[in-house]
Write a structure and sequence with these properties.
By secondary structure, the protein is of the alpha/beta class. The chain has helices at about 20-30, 50-65, 80-85, 95-105, 125-140, 165-175, 210-220, 230-245, 260-270, and strands at about 10-15, 35-45, 70-75, 90-95, 155-160, 180-185, 205-210, 250-255. The longest helix is centred in the N-terminal third of the chain and has 18 residues, at about 50-65. The chain starts with 7 loop residues before the first strand and ends with a helix.
Amino acid sequence: MVNQNNKNRVVFFISDRTGITAEALGVSLLSQFEGLNFTKIHLSFIDTVDKVHDAVKKVNSASLEAGEPALVFSTQINSEFRVMISESNCVFFDFFETFISKMERSLDLKSSHTAGKSHGVNHNNNYSNRMNSINFALGSDDGLGSKTYENADLILIGVSRSGKTPSCLFMALQYGINAANYPLIEQDLENTKLPESLQQYKHKLFGLTINPIRLQKIRDERRSNSNYASLKQCQNEVKRAEDLYHTNNISFIDTTQISIEEISAKIINKLSLR
């Protein structure tokens, strides 16, 4: 239910590390409340008493100016710091205490209470894997890495500006997946046969498609009033790309109305990538 009298709320994401987790969880919750505008303030690396005092001042000041308590989403590890922040003029959402305490009781084991574990460079080699995957994605962008397709976990194909590059980079950064991409150009779409460089990797292929009107708007921002950005060209390319997918039994999704996160999740689920 939307509070018609309060259209704007101040929101803080406070953490002793990057604040990525606090922001991700907080934004997910905020997205369920339509009709409200949220002014978002990020306070990262709040890991000393002085920094906590400064954060509390900012929360109190913002709440006073807005005339109502700010919303604070926190992943603060230090219990003393959490109490100090929670006692400010705010509505406090303590993700750490909410989940960790219940897990400790369930597992009958105390947590390490160590900041930055999920994003640390030594966390189960995840950091190195993700960096390697990002380099792989960049090195094989737009069909440049055909010689490395053997090492790819998947190869995204689709017409220009359908979302291939950002999806590959997101999967590399978040999951350490080696994702290459290949742009379907005019010559590739003259018939429904797969380009030669892709034929032996058909089992790794996943297609992206997009509404031609949306594609035209995206391309027009890049090359205004060109044939490349014309609606007719976009319609022709999208239709022929989808024909290629159907003929070769390649799974594909429409990226028009979904985010990069959703695109990636659907692909990972469909291909059972881990």
